[in-house]
Amino acid sequence: MTVPLALEPAGTGWQLELRGDWSLAAMPQIEAQLESLPRALRGPVLCDWSHAAAPGIAPAWALLRRLSDAGLPAAEISHSGSPPHFLELLQKLELDLLTPSGPQVAPLKLEGPIAKLGRWSVLQGRHARGVLEFLGRIAAVIGQAFRRPRALRISSLARHVYETGITAIPIVSLIAFLISVIVAYIGAQQLSRFGADIFVVDLVTIAVLREMGVLLTAIIVAGRSGSAFAAEIGVMQLNEETDALRAMGMNPIEMLVVPRVLALIIVLPLLTVIADAMGLAGGGLLSLVDLNIPLPQFTYRLRESLSPTTFWSGLIKAPVFAALIAMVGTYRGMQVRDSARELGRLTTVAVVQSIFMVIMADALFAVLFVQIHF
Amino acid sequence: MLDPNFNPAIRVRGLHNRFGAQIVHDGLDMEVLPNEIFGVVGGSGAGKSVLLRTILGLRAPDGGTVELYGRDVRQLAAVDRSSLVRSYGVTFQNGALISSLTVAQNIQLPLREYYPASEKILDELAELNLDLVGLNVADGKKFPSQLSGGMVKRAALARALALEPKLLFLDEPTAGLDPISAAAFDELLLYLHSQLRLTVVMITHDLDTLFQTCSRVGVIVDRRMITDTLDGMLENQNPWIREYFHGPRARAAEKEAHG
Fold first, then answer.
1. N or C: which end of chain B has fewer CB within 10 A?
2. pTM for the complete prediction?
3. Superfamily of structural domain B10-258
4. Do B145 and A25 touch (CB under 8 A)?
């Protein structure tokens, strides 16, 4: 293989012979050779292109840049041997680049920890204000709806009830059923050691109705619909669709956010009831198959273990979880700006944060219910 | 690699494209010669973008052949996709810059993919391509969302030129630009065309651009293409072409070009 470059003294200056493949594909070899040129060159340099095959723009550019880095003024560089047709253009461009245009921006200094803390606090402050503003706007739309029912956008609401609710029934049912079978199965293994098999019914009933039904449903819905909310609204932001709505005098909060929030508040309690029923069915089935507890005995024991508030203490949490999921999802969607990466990031944030907030809220409810003996 | 001097650069024979019952192209022929600027014109929905996607090998035609430099695009796309995509540069209508990368990184993206080089060289090449299309080096550090419409078109052109293609496809390069930016873009295109010896295929509705830059024009009418020089088009008796080239906007553009 030919070495792409040979530097030889000629008269008072140098002759630089370019040989072999000088196309873009040979860039790595050419670059290695250019690196081996002396750091500083004196005297005129004549580049001989007669042995360079298929010269590409990028290698020629790299050559010109290296020569000027070596401290050669453009006047001292000449070319011979049918140089490529674009060489003149490149030389002109290089001159443009060397003449500095506009004021140079001073590089940023490293920030001290206090400056970082300050920046962080300001950011958090702004963030908190953004959340408050968002909540305020939602409240304003709902307030308006009392005087102007059209603000509720019933058709949009119906679409979201269908998409977040009806289509979620199969997956919610399946998961609630399976999880309660698993809980009953593990519980039965432990309880049968004490001959307390029958208490599996209590275990399943209370666990499903108080906690698992609603929590599982909320987490599934956060994954399914919270992400969809963020992505849908985020893409609308990127396409300037929300700006278009604003420009037509429509309120994106009213058009996009409130229908989703209300739809989820309607849907999540209903899904929770379904999850509860499927969970109890799973417990019943396992009791029958694994523990030989017949169905009448299961239902009798179920009624015994229920207090009047058990069912409601689960269900009452559902609208709160729904509001959290929907508002986090839509808020993050509205925050999307500029790039596809932002969209992905904020969709992820929406799901993670809404699941986190659901669990936090659940913990608060648990403490509250114990305190008030609910 | 493809031979960039093969004549014609692009040859489309008997192209047939349809979506369900809707026939877009029915026996469309097109030939682009090396080193010319070829304008593609047609009404909305006439199938200009479908034609472009077919030539690029992004869409398999329902019939007919597309040859780039004498090689069938569908075979190339199946066998050696990378040499196919390295032989042409494309700019899309809305720029299609990757939004999470800076302009410089957008330009370096195809270079990184096909030609390993050091960061220093990549930076220099980004500078070169920015300079080539008339952007500042400082613009390279910006993200696409921070650019104006005209700058996006230029940045997209810089990315299309990064692999040093001989063949350039432009989809509505001046759409959405103000007349001054559009005229500047025309000038840039002519300049690059002469300096880099490019073959350019341009879909455009901008009559000014058409009259300023194109040597020949292909008009898609009735699912086929009628190709002629601009002067020939002005004489053409086809009703749609007459309407297109003799409407009030066309007369103004024509006057401009000849005056």
1. C
2. 0.73
3. P-loop containing nucleotide triphosphate hydrolases (3.40.50.300)
4. no
